[in-house]
């Protein structure tokens, strides 16, 4: 059984997650792209999850995005012998031995997305 659990807050706990012995998929986009993606997805105007109590305002959200991306970059740097870059969703599925027949092809670089796989 394979589970993929997504959360931007995992960026701060990658060293702990590494100790669990499972692959970790790391997705990085430029800070400004993350910020604009968050805004286009609804930003503070969505009802779930409610970001307002924690992130307060866009300035604070911007700082969190930068810190999350920084933590991911740092993890990749410190663990570079166990991290490989993945160029597409099909390559990722193949590497993880998952079926990708339900998905269309996505070349990550064409979408300004960098995807890396940490393998224990």
Write up this protein.
The radius of gyration is 15 Å and the shape is globular. The mean pLDDT is about 90. It contains 5 helices and 3 strands; from the N terminus they run αβαααβαβ. The chain has a 3-stranded antiparallel beta sheet. By secondary structure, it is of the alpha+beta class.
How would you concisely characterize the structure shown here?
By secondary structure, this protein is of the alpha+beta class.
Major sheet summary line: 3 strands, antiparallel
Low-confidence stretches: none
Number of strands: 3
| Whole-number mean pLDDT | 90
End-to-end Cα distance, whole Å, is 18 Å
Q: Tell me the fraction of residues in β-strands, as a range.
A: 5-15%
One letter per element, helices H and strands E, the order comes to HEHHHEHE
Name the assembly state.
Answer: single chain
Helix-strand layout with pairing:
Blueprint: H1 14-18, E1 24-28, H2 31-40, H3 52-55, H4 58-78, E2 83-86, H5 89-95, E3 114-118
Antiparallel strand pairs: 1-3, 2-3
Keywords:
120 residues, alpha+beta, three-stranded antiparallel beta sheet, globular
């Amino acid at each position: 059984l394979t589970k993929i659990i997504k959360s931007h807050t995992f960026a701060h706990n990658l060293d702990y997650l590494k100790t669990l012995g499972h692959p970790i998929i790391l997705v990085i986009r430029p800070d400004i792209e993350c910020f604009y993606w968050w805004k286009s997805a609804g930003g503070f105007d969505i009802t779930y999850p409610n970001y307002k109590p924690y992130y307060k305002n866009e300035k604070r959200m911007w700082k969190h995005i930068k810190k999350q991306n920084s933590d991911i970059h740092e993890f990749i740097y410190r663990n570079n012998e166990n991290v490989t870059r993945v160029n597409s969703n099909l390559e990722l599925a193949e590497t993880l031995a998952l079926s990708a027949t339900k998905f269309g092809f996505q070349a990550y670089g064409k979408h300004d997305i960098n995807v890396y796989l940490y393998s224990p």
